[in-house]
Amino acid sequence: MKHFFYTTALLFGASGLLFLAPTAASAQDTTPKYSNEFLNIGVGGRALGMGKVQVSLAQDATAGYWNPAGLLNQKAKYDAVLMHSELFSGIVKNDYAAFSMPLDDKSAIGISALRLGVDDIADTRNLINEYGYIQYDQIRYFSVADYAVLLSYARRIGNIEGLKVGANAKIVYRNVGDFANAWGFGIDAGVQYDKNDWHFGLMARDITTTVNAWTINSEKLNPVPGDPTVIPANSTEVTLPRFVLGAARLVKLPGEFTALAAVDLELTTDGQRNTLVSSKLASIDPRAGLEVGFKNLVFLRGGVSNFQKIKAFTNKEEWKMQPSLGVGVALSGLRLDLALSQLAIEKLGGRTQTNNLIVSLGYGIK
User: Fold this and answer.
1) What keywords are annotated for this sequence in UniProt (predicted)?
2) For the whole model, what pTM was predicted?
C-alpha cells in the first residue's frame, strides 16, 4: 500500500509543478473556463450508467479515455468498444470508438477516437439576393464538430503487485465549417492500484495544459452588407489541468451476486464552478455509482453526479444532482451496455441539461 501512496504523491507533485504557473489568478482571468469540454462528457454505457465513476475501475478499451493505466486490467487480449448517443433530440451526435491490446505481460497500448458534432446547419446569409428576392439555392450547409484522438500507453511498475501507470498523447481538432478550425495537443497521466477487492485510481488530464490554436477564415466570415458583426482574429484557447481521484470496492453477495461501489472526486483548476465544493482557485465535483452483477453476465447500474445549485421557481436556490441508470449484458466476449443519463453540457454562463440514451457495444477476443 505504501508504494501506491508514494507513486500517487509523485504524480500529484510533478503535475502540480507543471500547472502552478497557468493556474495563477492572472492566468485564470484570461483562460476560458470550459475549454474542450466535449472531452468531459464521458464514454461507454457502463461508465455513464454509473455516474461516470471509472477512474479506479476502467478495465477495457475505454480505459484509454478514463484512465490509461486500466488498459492492463482488460480480460481479453484484444478489446474494442463502439458508442453512439444523441443529445438535444438528435441534434448533437456523439460517437466514440476505441481499441486496445497488450504489448507484453507488463505493458499495453490503446487508441481512442471521439467526435461530437452538429451537422447540416443552414447558412442563410445569401438567402435574399440584391433585388430582394428569396433564392433557396443560395442556402449553404455546414457542420460544427469537435474531434479527438488519444494514443494510450500503460505499464506495470517494477514488481509492485497491483500498481500500474499510464499516459495519453491527445490530439484535438475543432472545426466550424469553412469558417474556422483549431488544432490542439495535450498529455494525460493516470495511475491505478488494486489490493484484494479494493481499487484506487488517479487521473490527471491536460497536465501540460492543452492549447488549441484557432485559425479564422475571414473571407468566409464576411457578413452581409450593413451587418455590424466584428470578425474575430486568430487566437489560442488553453485547457487547464483537472484531476480525478477515485476509489471502489467489490463485495460478493449470496447467490453469485456481486456489488461494486465507487466514488470519484473531480478537481478542476480553471476557476470557480457551480459544484458542491467551489472556490476561485479550484472546484471539486463528487460523483458516486453502484453496479450489481449476477454471475458476471447481467448488470444493473446507477449513479449520481453533477451536484449543482439551481434557482427554483420559488426563487430559492436548491442543490440538484443528475441521476443515471444503466443495464449491461456480457456473453462470450460480447458486451452490450445501455445507459439513461441526464448529461450537463457546460458552456460559458451556465449549464444545459439533456436526457440522453447511450448505447455502447464492446467485444473482447481472448
Assistant:
1) Signal
2) 0.83
Q: What are the start-end ranges of the E strands in 316-349?
A: 317-331, 334-347
* pLDDT at residue number 170: 96
Q: Which amino acid is at 293?
A: G
User: What is the arithmetic mean of pLDDT over 29-47?
Assistant: 82
Give residue 321's pLDDT band: very low, low, confident or very high (50, 70, 90).
confident
Superfamily of segment(s) 2-365: monomeric porin ompg (2.40.160.40)
Give the number of C-alpha atoms closer than 13 A to the C-alpha of residue 325, restricted to the C-beta side. Answer: 2
| Nearest residue to 61 (alpha-carbon basis) of 85, 82, 40, 38 | 82
Q: Which letter does DSSP use for residue 32 in this model?
A: -
Under a CB-based contact definition with an 8 Å cutoff, are residues 324 and 339 in contact?
yes
Sign of CA dihedral 70, 13, 150, 265: positive
92-110 average pLDDT score: 94
Which of these, 224, 221, 220, lies nearest to 129 by C-alpha position? 224
Neighbours of 194 (CB within 10 A): 21
Distance of CA 319 to the CA centre of its chain: 23
What is the rounded CA–CA span in Å between residue 41 and residue 43? 7
Which alpha helices (DSSP H) does the chain contain, by range?
2-19, 25-30, 45-49, 63-66
Cβ neighbours for 18, distance < 8 A, ≥ 6 positions apart: 207, 208, 209, 241
pLDDT, tens only, 68-96? 999 999 988 999 999 998 887 788 899 99
Mean residue pLDDT across the chain:
84
Domain map (residue ranges) of the chain: 2-365
Closest CA to 274 of 23, 30, 33, 40: 33
Report the chain's terminal Cα–Cα distance, integer Å.
Answer: 31
Tell me the β-bridge partners of 249: 198, 261
Exposed, middle or buried, 148 (CB in 10 Å: 0-12/13-18/19+)? buried
- Bigger pLDDT: 277 vs 102: 102
Q: What is the mean pLDDT of residues 7-35?
A: 43
